[in-house]
Design a protein that fits this description.
The chain contains eight helices and ten strands. α4 packs across α7 and α6 crosses α7. The strands form three sheets. A four-stranded antiparallel beta sheet has the order 1-6-7-5, covered by helices on one side. Strands 2-3-4-8 form a four-stranded antiparallel beta sheet. The structure holds a DNA duplex (16 and 16 nucleotides).
DNA sequence: AGCTCTTCCTGAAAGC
DNA sequence: TGCTTTCAGGAAGAGC
């Protein structure tokens, strides 16, 4: 699943081969993950790619009018989120089409930028350059840019579990399930701990761990678990360096305890029970227990 | 504020 | 062997 390091790798690849090219034509297959396909068809063809940037897990392809004499409002941002299984690759227009390829951007040099997405959990939209800051403002801070002080301030007032906070894109943007688990392991913090209850040193350790994990993962060109490929269709290598993610049942690289998997914040979560002690986990409240009981009964009813 | 559940979708894996 | 069911998960929205 593409998270910040994977998206950054894709963006670097696209940045090396797209700027300067003009998009001649846009073709669509299935469009249920596209906000407004007609608007993309209307605005994008004829524009020149000015740059490719990343914000959180989003890719932004900047587009400008070829002739600067045009009116100013032609500058556009093509925004793409890869969801779980999205892939953006640049190929020659005659190359075989991979299954589940749903958007084709024909370039003026005989190549094509293609969007492939098996599960179609991704998203694609176009906004005018003037609307872009507003779109961007809905996202939280960049984990590689936020300072230690700021990070501590943001987390120390939160009553949610660390795992939930790390996955919340309106707080920090770009961290997903893999890098949340890997960061928490490095900081020796249990995923279900409440942020507010941590000591300052622990929050500082988490801030440092997030940076370290993301930077190392970018150097390894991201993690390829199943579907992830970069803009040239190549796999990343960071999955070989995961210390807890999908390693449940295996020995901890630090202490040899068996890595465990549990659901936290609704997500499969991997951790070492010895290196990441639970601390004082909030006891299951009567309300939570009742909710759990209800869902269990609902499940039994369905199956029986 | 924050938690749980549901929805979207498909392929892999588990269950029978 | 082969069919059916379950599960995984990023994000958004509902309801509590």
């Amino acid at each position: 699943m593409p998270e910040l390091p994977e998206v950054e790798t894709v963006v670097r690849g696209l940045r090396a081969s797209l700027p300067g090219r003009t998009i001649d034509e846009v073709r669509f297959g299935k469009t249920d993950f596209v906000d407004d396909p007609a608007l993309i068809s209307e605005r994008v063809p004829g524009l020149k790619i000015s740059g490719v940037t990343r914000f959180g897990k989003f890719i932004c392809i900047g587009l400008d009018a070829v002739s600067t004499a045009e009116n100013i409002e032609t500058a556009q941002c093509l925004i793409i989120h890869l969801g779980m299984t999205g892939q953006l690759t640049v190929v020659h227009s005659g190359d075989p089409i991979k299954p589940h390829t749903h958007v084709f951007f024909a370039l003026d040099d005989g190549r094509e930028l293609r969007y492939t997405d098996v599960r179609r959990f991704g998203r694609m939209l176009v906004v005018s350059a003037s609307q872009f800051p507003e779109f961007k403002s809905r996202l939280g801070k960049e984990p590689l840019e936020i300072g230690a002080e700021e990070f501590c301030d943001d987390f120390s007032s939160r009553r949610a579990r660390l795992k939930a906070l790390l996955l919340d894109q309106s707080i920090l943007c770009g961290v997903g399930n893999i890098y949340a688990d890997e960061s928490l392991f490095r900081a020796r913090l249990h995923p279900a701990r409440i942020a507010e209850k941590l000591k300052r040193e622990q929050l500082l350790a988490l801030h440092k761990a997030i940076r370290a994990v993301l930077e190392e993962a970018i150097l390894s060109r991201g993690s390829s678990i199943s579907d992830y490929r970069d803009s040239e269709g190549k796999r990343g290598n960071f999955q070989l360096k995961h210390r807890v993610y999908k390693r449940d049942g295996k020995p901890c690289v630090r202490c040899k305890s068996i890595i465990r998997r549990m659901i936290v914040a609704g997500r499969g979560t991997h951790f070492c029970p010895a290196c990441q002690p639970a601390g004082r986990i909030r006891r299951t409240s009567k309300k939570d227990a009742a909710a759990k009981d209800r869902s269990k009964k609902a499940r039994n009813k369905k199956s029986g």
